[in-house]
Amino acid sequence: MSNPNTRRLVGHVLVDAMTSIDPEAEMGANLGAINLALQRLKDIGAADLTYNEESGVQYDATNIVVPALMAMVWLSSRLASVTGTSEEEIYVQLRESFDQA
Length: 101
Hints:
Mean pLDDT: 92
């Protein structure tokens, strides 16, 4: 179930994961650091997994998705402001970055 305090904590965990990345390090080292940071998501109950006979397994990641989207919007807005680029163009560039990953 969506919880404002859990979303707040998830936001901090996402920043922890982001800051754990060392651009000079190898991918394996970065993945290890990111996974370590993201382990806290389990501790704070960031996602809910439930089961019932009628609907089967239900997974709710709202507490993770909302802060991630909030961060993307906030950062895109700041980046657009600083660079003079429209937010729409920032989104296009972000999509291109995903495609190249």
